[in-house]
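seq:
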Amino acid sequence: MKFLGIDEAISWGKILFEQEFANIIFTNENILNSAWEILQKEKGERKPMNLTDCVVSMSSTLLKCDEILTFDKRLKNY
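struct:
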């Protein structure tokens, strides 16, 4: 959201935090360890995911999320 400006970021923040548009997930040691395993398997990929993307992917898998809110096509299809 940085490229849209602080006002737009605040507007979206209010939607996310105050209107419960989405669940906010906090990571823990198990999720981080699993994400680290995913990241290591990304070696050799043309465009590997970063650790943050791996945490999101692992969290969504564990919580059986139907959808991930992202602009990253690779993460969305993971």
